[in-house]
Design goal:
Shape of chain A: elongated
Strand order of the largest sheet of chain B: 1-3-2-4-6-5-10-11-9-7-8
Order of helices and strands of chain A: EEHEEEEEEEEHEEHEEEHHHHHHHHHHHH
Order of helices and strands of chain B: HHEHEHEHEHEEHEHEHHHHEHHEEH
Distance between the termini of chain B: 17 Å
Chains: A alpha+beta (479), B alpha/beta (472), C mainly alpha (102)
Shape of chain B: globular
Largest sheet of chain B: 11 strands, mixed
Number of helices of chain B: 15
Number of strands of chain A: 15
Radius of gyration of chain A: 29 Å
Strand content of chain B: 5-15%
Oligomer: heterotrimer
Largest sheet of chain A: 9 strands, mixed
Structural class of chain A: alpha+beta
Distance between the termini of chain A: 60 Å
């Protein structure tokens, strides 16, 4: 829990997202992760003297798509130079949008309906990667550093939220929802483990009921959504501790240490940064026409919030139902709606997707939709018990598909024959005369008792609905 | 021989490219030690390229409009595998892995690159004394400067080393040395010539342009290097301006305005040549009158704020990490400081300092922001002037070539010598300097013609007329 | 020389740090005077009433200059690293870095 009695947490997130283009922002070098160092470089992204940037059309369209999906105003924009020296920056300035960003003033709705404001989502170029070499393997105590510029110039969108987030849980929900949107619209693969999604958190606390903002700390090096939650919780406790002890929170950048589970100050003896922003003279302004903006908006697929609404309606549950959130986040909603259209029970389809399919960690495209539907239909009409259906589904998922009927047969999951079922039911009725008498008198809930007994007697091979039907038949005949 | 004549002879097989190039290499060998126009002469490469041209002519191919014409490149134009120093120690030994767009176009047009010319370090200067490799001298009087920053290119043409050279012009760096060396120098409309491969000084002001012995040769060169380039976002769509065909059209009926605000600070002999040039154009049928561009006086300060601000950012990349000089140190920040201290000369440091200051927190609005607004005022003034005139006229430089060392200790005095040339860079307009007689000291005087954006045809038309009426 | 320089020696020292230029005391003194003189000359620009005048960042009125998202050949790594003052394991080698990027 983040909230400590008497204090309110205030969080704003800055999310850097690498755009899923084929090439870099300003040159034709490939935008790919994991290649040999310095193999995807050219005069432009190495900042060689005389080279000039030319803006990638696709990166602009993806940035516009991000802004549109976040309900921003997509505006005319200007690139600036942000000047500072660092070895991972080939030109010793970063080309970024400053006071005229492409997207401003949007919002993101969390699954539970909480609305988080989006201040801006602007374009900029990524930096290269430095590796600190030395006995410690860390920046402090390193002997030297090595630089790879493959990532330099990769297009980024930086999405800056308003300080509307009130807890670590909300921060996690915001990032999960944002990631789902970015993936859904094809803007980014949004993989935190590969650095294509990176988060900085601005965290402050204030007395509950206050509307003033407290002094914030900016937390860097958050490498997963889990780290984000842990770091926010730690930082909130640290700041409350300071304030309750009569100390002050210092406005600074803090580094999250995953192993130690704490944040630490990154202040160095460097001068205060003065980035000397000015308009990048090697580029011209962007002024998207209404037509271009409309085309980008028209090209957007259904967003996660809309898909949750559709799925919830199909499954007959609320839009913030956890299974709905999970299924849409994993991109399994089409699987579920197709199964429902194919005759599967909606709730059953939703739950199987949210649990069994999700647990299998299979990409949505690799799930055999027809087999999924068949398993659910077989379960629904009693050919498979719930336990058997889960096993058949697991085989389908592990094998990348298959015929559920054949799998069931191979596993010996033939449903009990009609004669065997009738015999089993009659035997159970004979063995439990007291209950049977009450059932016949109208105590309908005792049906469950008999089904359970029959299931036990048949090792689960009986179809529950067939058992119930036989019970009714017997009761009518004996009345 | 002019470039136009050489190309005609070589294309027709009347003369071999090899004999043309050999003759020019001999001229270079005879006087280069005295003039020091070049940082690098490419003897073997040039002869090899000439032989390729000759073989193509023999095979019935047309090697292009500059077939066999020797050309010199300012040493801030990237040449694949060939050192490109910008006159700076910090780039000493750097061999670019690519060619500038203009270099590619020259090769495709059959021109033969004979060398890289000396320049003020990173094009910062007006005398070519700020080169890390020593000054270039004026071929008309080696005790005097050739002007700058394209002093090596201007001197190479003036000395007959090459009929054509390329320079770059950020605040007059083609036109002022052309004037001081007695050759033709032209700065195109911003965006007419691709900057891809031009090592940047001030990106919103830099343009590559021709230096030549004649207006016709400059026109031929502009047609080869101009035209849209997808590698430069600031390149204007469309082909190169058509300027060769207008050279004989004369100035009959053209309205020419002499910029009143730029006549004040001229040396008397330069002022006299300006008056004579105006009279000559009037004699050729132009309607000549006084023109006013009131904010032109603010241009110099605006220019030095904008140019140095952009330069401070453009020159940040010389940090000892990826190419060029490194002075080793304990940590990377110390390495940056030591490398840049050792690699840059005094003028470059001075301008980086000024530009950094102009952009820094608290001063941006007063300096850089204001300078950009002055730029707007200047453009408006030019628009008003061009409502009345087809062309504007001024001297190129307030003085003729001055002795080496005369202004080295006073940066502001050196900056003031650019007052006539910088307005066209701020406005992005084309301008040309045409030799017109000499001063009292016998040194060449250049007269400058200004035209509105994309006014290259009318500019060349008038430049050719001025050339025809110049005193011999 | 200007009587009241618009920039101080401390300003010059600060700017030199921003620009990553290690200057000698003599250079600092020299630049303080020279830059003050240039700024004094620029006082006309700084003092001008430009209310209502928009800035011109660029002489061209171009917008939306874009290229297609098509891969083009990168440079040969050996050629790239051959130009570097120091390289190791396919990467550019630099002295130790004391702080994180700002």
């Amino acid at each position: 829990m983040t909230d400590v009695a008497g204090w309110e947490t205030v969080i704003g997130l800055e999310v850097h997202c690498e755009l899923a283009t084929a090439t870099k922002l300003f040159c034709g070098c490939p935008n790919v992760f994991g290649d040999e160092p310095n193999t995807n470089v050219c005069p432009v992204c190495l900042g060689l003297p005389g080279s000039l940037p030319v803006l990638n059309r696709r990166s602009v369209e993806l940035a516009m798509a991000v802004g549109t999906a976040l309900h921003c105003e997509v505006r005319p924009s200007v690139f600036h130079r942000k000047n500072y020296f660092y070895p991972d920056m080939p030109k010793d300035y970063q080309v970024s949008q400053y006071d005229q960003p492409i997207n401003v003033g949007g919002h993101l709705d969390l699954p539970d309906g909480t609305r988080i404001g989006v201040t801006r989502a602007h374009m900029e170029e990524d930096t290269g990667k430095t590796t600190h070499v030395g006995e410690s393997g860390r920046i402090h105590g390193a002997d030297y550093a090595l630089v790879d510029y493959n990532r330099a110039g990769v297009p980024l969108v930086e999405i800056v939220s308003e300080p509307d987030i009130r807890s670590a849980d909300e921060a996690r929900a915001y990032v999960n929802e944002l990631r789902a949107i970015l993936v859904a619209i094809g803007a980014s693969d949004a993989r935190m483990e590969e650095g294509s999604l990176r988060i900085d958190a601005n965290v402050s606390v204030r007395p509950a009921g206050s509307s003033a903002l407290g002094t914030r700390a900016e937390i860097k090096n958050l490498n997963s959504v889990r780290s984000l939650g842990r770091a926010v919780d730690y930082e909130v406790r640290r700041q409350i501790g300071l304030l309750e002890a009569g100390d002050k929170v210092v406005q600074e950048t803090r580094h999250w240490n995953e192993d130690a589970g704490r944040t630490s100050s990154m202040r160095s003896k460097e001068e205060a940064y003065d980035y000397r922003y000015f308009p990048e003279p090697d580029l011209v302004p962007l002024a998207p026409s209404d037509r271009w903006r409309d085309a980008v908006a028209a090209g957007l697929p259904a967003l996660p919030a809309d898909r949750r609404r559709l799925l919830a309606a199909a499954a007959g549950v609320a839009a913030d139902h956890q299974a709905v959130v999970t299924v849409v986040a994993l991109g399994l909603d089409d699987l579920v709606t197709a199964a429902v259209a194919g005759g599967a029970d909606p709730r059953l389809a939703l739950n199987r997707a949210a649990n069994e399919v999700a647990a299998a960690h299979v990409a949505p495209a690799d799930v055999d939709g027809a087999a999924f539907t068949t398993v659910l239909v077989m379960e629904g009409d009693g050919r498979l018990t719930s336990t058997q259906a889960k096993q058949v589904l697991a085989d389908v998922l592990a094998g990348g598909g298959g015929d559920p009927v054949a799998i069931a047969r191979a596993r010996g999951f033939e449903a009990l024959g009609a004669d065997a079922l009738t015999g089993a039911v009659d035997q159970v009725v004979a063995d439990n005369p007291g209950e049977w008498a009450r059932f016949k008198e109208g105590e309908a809930k005792l049906a469950g008792f008999f089904v359970g007994k029959v299931m036990a007697a048949t090792q689960g091979r009986a179809d529950g609905r067939a058992v119930t039907a036989r019970l009714r038949e017997l009761a009518a005949a004996n009345r | 021989m002019t470039a136009v004549e050489i190309a005609a002879d070589v294309r027709a097989g009347r003369r071999s490219a090899r004999e043309v190039v050999e003759a020019h290499l001999e001229t270079i060998a005879a006087r280069e030690q005295e003039v020091h126009a070049f940082n690098l002469v490419l003897h073997a490469d040039a002869l090899g390229a000439a032989d390729v041209i000759d073989r193509r002519v023999a095979a019935g191919d047309d090697p292009g409009p500059l077939a066999g014409v020797p050309i010199a490149l300012k040493d801030n134009l990237a040449t694949r595998g060939i050192p490109t120093t910008c006159g700076s120690r910090i780039l000493d030994g750097w061999r670019p892995p690519y060619d500038a767009t203009v270099v590619t176009r020259l090769r495709e047009a059959g021109a033969v690159i004979v060398g890289k010319t000396n320049m003020d370090e990173f094009a910062m200067g007006s005398s070519t004394e700020n080169s890390a490799f020593g000054p270039t001298r004026n071929p008309h009087d080696p005790s005097r400067v050739p002007g700058g920053s394209s002093g090596g290119s201007a001197a190479a043409v003036a000395a007959g080393f090459v009929p054509l050279a390329l320079g770059s012009d950020t605040g007059g760096s083609i036109r002022q040395p052309a004037a001081l060396c007695g050759v033709v120098g032209m700065k195109p409309t911003y965006g007419v010539v691709s900057r891809y491969g031009l090592v940047a000084f001030a990106s919103s002001l830099d343009q590559i342009g021709p230096l030549a012995a004649t207006v016709a040769d400059a026109a031929a060169l502009l047609e080869v290097i101009g035209g849209h380039d997808p590698l430069d976002s600031t390149s204007i769509a469309g082909p190169a301006p058509r300027v060769r065909g207008v050279l004989d059209d004369g100035v009959e009926g053209l309205r020419v305005g002499v910029v009143r605000e730029l006549t004040g600070g001229l040396d008397p002999d330069v002022a006299a040549r300006l008056n004579e040039a105006a009279a000559a154009l009037a004699g050729a049928g132009a309607k000549v009158d006084d023109a006013s561009v009131p904010s032109v006086g603010l241009g110099l300060s605006a220019y030095y704020l904008i140019a140095t601000a952009e330069a401070s950012s453009n020159l940040a990349r010389y940090d000892g990490v990826r190419y060029g000089l490194r002075v080793d140190a304990e940590d990377v920040t110390a390495m940056y400081g030591a490398t840049r201290a050792a690699g840059f000369g005094a003028e470059v440091k001075r301008r980086i300092m000024l530009g950094t200051y102009a952009l820094s927190a608290g001063y941006y609005d007063a300096y850089y922001g204001q300078a950009q607004r002055v730029r707007t005022l200047l453009i408006r003034d030019f628009e008003a002037a061009y409502a009345q005139f087809d062309l504007l006229l001024s001297a190129t430089s307030p003085t003729t070539a001055f002795p080496l060392g005369a202004k080295s200790d006073d940066p502001l005095a050196m900056y003031l010598s650019d007052v006539c040339t910088i307005p066209s860079n701020l406005a992005g307009h084309p301008a040309a300097s045409v030799p017109f007689g000499t001063g009292d000291d016998g040194m060449p005087v250049g007269i400058q013609l200004y035209a509105p954006a994309l006014g290259e045809p009318v500019l060349f038309r008038a430049a050719a007329a001025l050339e025809r009426s110049a005193p011999r | 020389m200007v009587d009241k320089p618009s920039l101080s020696r401390d300003d010059v020292v600060h700017v030199a740090v921003l620009a990553r230029l290690v200057l000698t005391d003599a250079e600092i003194d020299e630049f303080t005077g020279q830059l003050a003189a240039v700024l004094e000359h620029a006082a006309d620009v700084a003092a001008l009433d430009t209310s209502g005048v928009p800035p011109t960042a660029h002489p061209l009125p171009l917008v939306n200059v874009l290229r297609d998202d098509v891969v083009r050949p990168s440079l040969d790594r050996d050629e790239v690293l051959a130009a570097a003052p120091a390289a190791e394991s396919g990467r550019f080698k630099v002295p130790r870095i004391l702080g994180d990027a700002p």
